[in-house]
Specification:
Layout lengths: L1 E7 L2 E6 L11 E9 L5 H6 L7 E2 L4 E8 L11 E4 L2 E2 L5 H4 L10 E2 L12 E4 L2 H4 L1 E2 L9 H5 L4 H11 L7 E5 L3 H12 L4 E5 L3 H10 L3 E3 L3 H11 L5 E6 L4 H10 E9 L11 H6 L3 E4 L4 H13 L9 E6 L3 H9 L5 E5 L1
Parallel strand pairs: 11-12, 11-14, 12-13, 14-15, 15-16, 17-18
Antiparallel strand pairs: 1-2, 1-4, 3-5, 3-9, 3-18, 5-6, 6-10, 7-8
Bound molecules: zinc ion.
């Protein structure tokens, strides 16, 4: 089959790769009907070294079950399923707690060990725990929004949950990528009354406003912090969704939080150390977050997608076939596109 192989920074190729097969009795194989390129795919696109190992990319997909292993119980051939970016057994202590991204038998798609989903098909480890059967046909009009349940919508929601967003709260969203935009949807959905999007790309800000952002702060650094304080009686916001992962964005997140506020981090940190230890300590700020257990959130978010109350699929502003995936990476990296949908 054909798949998207990344060899090094900037080197993405569509090639013949081995067909996925059932390797464990708990595996399934799905034919990929929709996949996409993630903002987090842009980190290796910028930095991957040839020695790091080539990988079949992609950790977000919807597909149709083609094969199941002997121990798979909850899936059947032909099911339309969403694949969360992490696989999980659905039975361990952490899965029971709704934290499937810490599953003791879990892992992530799209690395040298586990091939990813920007391809014609993909092997799903721990298929019963991982895949979520959708009550729609494979070409349903809601596919773009359903696809966001594999990562960005669940991740934005996780940031909001960790940041304790609730009715009446004020929220700042740091980052105007697809996750930040879904964070706006999540904050509004959870009842926030003030949602400040911190970003500077006009197309993204327009979408953020349509999703429910009440204010826009396009400055950076100290000016951005000043602007947020002006908008919040001088104190800062109750909740901050950190959707970037750079030191500067984390510093900004801590600075715009009001004393006693909370920061939900879902941007993958690009440094080992976390900045802002002293300011966050002296402001009594709660900091949490990590890889979102999107598998757990599908139950809660799916009805809102099916009934049209949220439309996170609007973050996709370009659709490509497999041959055009390398150009999709380039377009997202050049900020020409917010998020690219792939139809293999
Ligand atoms: Zn588990």
């Amino acid at each position: 089959m054909r798949g998207t192989v990344m060899y090094a920074a900037g080197d993405v190729r569509i090639e013949n790769v081995p067909d996925p097969t059932i390797q464990e009795p708990t595996d399934a194989v799905i034919r990929v009907t929709r996949a996409c390129i993630c903002g987090s795919d842009l980190w290796p696109y910028k930095t991957l070294q040839p020695d790091d190992g080539a990988r079949v990319m992609g950790h977000e997909a919807i597909g149709v079950v083609e094969e199941i292993g002997a121990d798979v119980r909850t899936l059947k051939i032909g099911d339309v399923v969403v694949m969360p970016f992490a696989f999980s057994d659905g039975t361990c202590i952490f899965c029971d707690e709704g934290l499937q991204t810490e599953c003791v038998h879990g892992g992530f798609f799209g690395n040298p060990e586990v091939p990813g989903a920007q391809s014609e098909a993909v092997r799903i480890p721990q298929a019963d725990g991982t895949l979520y059967v959708l009550p729609v046909g494979e070409d349903d009009a809601l596919m773009p929004s359903l696809l966001t349940l594999s990562d960005v919508m669940g991740t934005g929601h996780h940031a909001a949950v960790v940041a304790k967003v609730g009715p009446g709260k004020s929220v700042a969203v740091v980052g105007d990528g697809a996750v930040g935009l879904c964070g706006v949807i999540a904050a509004k959905r959870l009842g926030a009354v003030q949602i400040i999007i911190m970003g500077r790309h006009q197309d993204r800000i327009t979408l953020a406003r349509e999703f429910g952002a009440t204010d826009v702060v396009s400055e950076r650094g100290p000016e951005a912090v000043e602007r947020v304080k002006e908008l919040t009686d001088g104190y800062g916001v109750d909740a901050v969704l950190e959707c970037v992962g750079l030191d500067q964005s984390m510093e900004t997140a801590i600075e715009v939080a009001r004393p006693g506020g909370a920061v939900g981090r879902v941007g993958v940190p690009q440094d080992e150390l976390m900045p802002g230890a002293q300011p966050s300590f002296f402001k009594n700020i709660t900091i949490g977050g990590g890889p979102a257990p999107v598998r757990a959130y599908i139950d809660e978010l799916l009805p809102d997608v099916l009934e049209g109350r949220i439309e996170p699929g609007r973050v996709f502003d370009r659709t490509v076939d497999l041959d055009s995936v390398p150009d999709g990476y380039r377009a997202m990296n050049d900020r020409e596109s917010i998020k690219v949908l792939v139809r293999p």
